[in-house]
Amino acid sequence: MARLVIVSNRVSMPRERLSRAGGLAVALREALNQYGGLWFGWSGETVAEPSNEPRRARQGKVDFAVIDLSPEEHQQFYLEFANSILWPLCHYRLGLIDFRRAAWDGYLAVNDRFAEVLSKLLRPDDIVWVHDYHFIPLAAALRRRGLANKIGFFLHIPFPAPEVLAALPGHERLVRDLCAYDLVGFQTKTDMRALTEYILHEANGQVGDDGHVLAFGRSLRVGAFPIGIDTEDFARLGEQAQNSLDAQRLRDSLGDRKLVLGVDRLDYSKGIPQRFDAFYNMLSKHPEWRGKVTFMQIAPISRGEVTQYRKLRGELDALTGRINGKFAEFDWAPVRYLNKSFPRNQLAAFYRIAAVGLVTPLRDGMNLVAKEYVAAQNPEDPGVLILSRFAGAVREMGGAVIVNPYDPEQVAEALVRALSMPLDERRQRWQYNMDVLRANTITHWRESFLKALQA
Ligand code: GDG
């Protein structure tokens, strides 16, 4: 295969510890190791006068090249357009959008600068794989510079329905630029159809049954490529974790209480306040569960500079206080709320011990936590996944108890049902999900995308 070039917003340089990196970073680095290639993106740093000369590193067959952003670029491109406009838009939260023309201009300008730097690093036969909403206009900016390489794009978050997308000033340009890629991949068919509906009805384009699209004078393909995890690795971590010191400490602290677990970046798309509400509801309506169950929410702070995220933090602090204030006993606190992150092996120990994995996003591209929770279970005595109908993962995790996260009473009932579910049913549900996870791993995802891009 030709050289592979991956572009993503944050690039983990070789010195960054992979044990803390997510499964995605690990999988992409594996692809680069396999084919040889280049990983290009933002360094994560802001400096007053960023240079267009990238900082380089090399490890094995993989080159890394990163550039810095100026404080203004960081503000307009990253904090404002990507994370205060595109993120809420794609998660159907129009009320949270804070549109500013300067942010849009900044977004396009940063994409243009990234294209300028990248165009000097590319060889004619390189295959380029661009990741996520930060870089929708990147291929168009590369094409303007005469590059004819195969360029693919994968959107990790949902793609909004045309009616929602139309709320974004500049949506026509955004979709036109998206069509400069050769392959556009989505997490689910629903996301894919949202784009093809737009192409058909807003852009006068054509869409074939095989995902072939003709629009804006270009021909491209679109497809659904649901992202997976390293299933065996999580299963192994889960098994090893059960005898770890952390697992022992957690078990000791729980006594004979059951554990309900939530793990999410602290993000409003994850439905955490609604989940707290559901737990409150369960303790109110089912007093028999008081003192018998503990809900642990791990929520490392994310995008702390964005106002909406700071508000969410305040809201959750208050909810934790409200639930614990009302129900706690001198020897039991119903909610454990932790604003920090844990290494993957510790996380696996928590997954393994939890009787219920409570994954209730209001909207989510896929949600890897749901998959990791399943993979880390004890096959002899697996826990139950409760999953939102609005997570991409729901298409595959047919063994989950599926809920509407906006309905706290329904989620409370699902909790009671999951906590009391007989072993046989738990095993059947888990087996169904695990078979899916074994068939669609992250390696499978990566290979099927790259195969489609090369075809
Ligand atoms: C985006 C899309 C899509 C979380 N806390 C800790 C920790 N994590 C890890 C989890 C998981 C990852 O972070 C979160 O992945 P999600 O998929 O749940 O969510 P997003 O971050 O929003 O990801 C999403 C994904 O991209 C991939 O395409 O599924 O829909 O929004 O892997 O384990 N990891 C460690 N400590 C923590 O405390 N080590």
Helicity level: 40-55%
Structural class by secondary-structure content: alpha/beta
| Spatial order of strands in the largest sheet | 3-4-2-1-5-6-7-10-9-8
**Beta-strand content estimate:** 15-25%
N-to-C terminal Cα separation, in Å? 12 Å
- Average pLDDT, all residues: 95
Count the helices. How many?
Answer: 16
Number of strands: 16
> What are the segments in which pLDDT stays under 50 over at least 5 consecutive residues?
none
Instruction: Characterize the biggest β-sheet.
Output: 10 strands, mixed
Please tell me what the overall shape is. globular
Describe this structure in words.
The chain is an alpha/beta fold and about 450 residues long. Helices cover about 45% and strands about 20% of the residues. It contains 16 helices and 16 strands. It has helices at about 25-35, 70-90, 100-120, 140-145, 160-165, 170-180, 190-200, 230-240, 245-255, 270-285, 305-325, 345-355, 370-375, 410-420, 425-440, 440-455, and strands at about 5-10, 35-45, 55-60, 60-70, 125-130, 150-155, 185, 205, 210-215, 220-225, 260-265, 295-300, 335-340, 355-360, 385-390, 400-405. The strands form 2 sheets. A 10-stranded mixed sheet has the order 3-4-2-1-5-6-7-10-9-8, sandwiched between helices. A 6-stranded parallel sheet has the order 13-12-11-14-15-16, with helices on both faces. Strand 1 (about 5-10), helix 1 and strand 2 form a beta-alpha-beta unit. Helix 2 (about 70-90) packs across helix 3 and helix 10 (about 270-285) packs across helix 14 (about 410-420). The chain is globular. The model has no long low-confidence stretch (mean pLDDT about 95). The structure holds GDP-alpha-D-glucose. GDP-alpha-D-glucose binds next to helix 1, helix 12 and helix 13.
